[in-house]
Design a protein that fits this description.
The protein has 335 residues and is of the alpha+beta class. The chain contains 9 helices and 11 strands. Helix 3 runs parallel beside helix 7.
Length: 335
């Protein structure tokens, strides 16, 4: 019995312990993974074989780069030539902007490939593909647009005529029940027999609005005598003739919030800049009191012509002209 007990105890003491998991370094794991990949790639149903890279030819690459550089400068010079042609040859023979000024440059895109074929050496031309013609077309288009904008705008030139900043408007009055500006017709509904009408407008230009020539005529349909009939520089008309308040003073006498169409709101910041009729501080604002004792129902016509002359104007006549006619219709509201 003692011997049996001894053997059982000895077996318990001599049992080997389980080995601890061995640590595998990164280098060994990477080698094993590479070996496994090579072994699996050769077996049936293994992964796809990698596509071999095409050999790099430095001389062919250099030729391709030279060809693209020649094409780039050729297209830029072509766009510059077309822009100069439009500005200094076509525009001086016209009275005003015409469709040909943008249609002709767009049609000349078709000349890009023949131009390359004519100018570029054959060994470079043969390297061009469809992608080159598409890129060249866009490069020409943006080059022509950028240079054209530079050549027809200040300080080089000026093709924009002076114009009204925000159509026309009238000052608020107690008797106005409704108003609506639809294009060139401004409809006012009044709840009284007559109301005071102060008509306002603002002249705007990208160079010098004050030195533009303005011709303004305001009359009521059915009458012979015009209410306002002036032709002079914008500066002189706004300053008036010294008889009573000048048009600029009349406009300033109206609070910006008291114009019927309200203030102009900046859609990005949400701020209000000024009345919609003349929102910017550079606008030349003017206003006239149409009826000394109040205006009743009827139609009033406002005819405005603005002319800008100067060496910067590229047209044949040397002037930019803007002309517009508005109708102010006063209606009696139904009770």
């Amino acid at each position: 019995m003692q011997q049996q007990h001894f053997h059982s105890h000895a077996g318990l003491m001599c049992r080997p312990l389980s080995p601890e998991p061995s640590m595998v370094d990164v280098d060994t794991a990477l080698r094993a993974s590479a070996y496994s990949g090579r072994k699996g790639g050769g077996s049936k149903g293994g992964g796809k074989k990698s596509t071999p890279l095409e050999p790099f030819d430095p001389s062919a690459h250099a030729e391709k780069e030279k060809a693209e550089a020649i094409s780039m400068w050729l297209v830029i010079l072509f766009g510059l030539s077309v822009a100069l042609l439009m500005r200094f040859y076509m525009m001086p023979g016209m009275d005003s902007p015409q469709q040909i000024l943008w249609l002709l440059p767009l049609l000349t895109i078709a000349l890009i490939r023949p131009l390359h074929q004519l100018v570029v050496p054959t060994r470079f031309f043969e390297l061009f593909s469809t992608g080159n013609w598409v890129r060249s077309s866009f490069l020409y288009l943006f080059t022509w647009l950028a240079l054209s904008f530079a050549l027809v705008n200040p300080p080089i030139a000026d093709i924009a005529a002076p114009h009204l900043a925000g159509a026309i408007d009238i000052a608020s009055s107690e008797g106005i029940s409704d108003s609506d500006l639809d294009g060139r017709v401004y409809e006012i509904r009044i709840s009284q027999d007559s109301i005071p009408i102060i008509l306002g407008l603002g002249v705007r230009d990208n160079v010098d609005a004050l030195n533009s020539t303005m011709s303004i005529t305001i009359y009521k349909v059915g009458t012979m005598e015009p209410i306002v009939n002036e032709t002079d520089s914008v500066s002189n008309i706004s300053d008036g003739k010294g008889e009573g308040p000048s048009p600029s003073e009349t406009f300033e006498s109206v609070d910006p919030n008291d114009w019927v169409r309200g203030l102009k709101k900046n859609t990005l910041t949400g701020d209000y800049s000024g009345p919609k009729v003349a929102p910017h501080s550079e606008d030349v604002s003017m206003a006239w009191n149409l009826c000394e004792y109040g205006c009743g129902p009827g139609e009033y016509v406002i005819h405005i012509t603005l002319v800008e002359e100067g060496s910067m104007v590229p047209w044949k006549d040397g002037d930019n002209v803007w002309e517009r006619e508005y109708s102010l219709v006063i209606l009696q509201s139904s009770s």
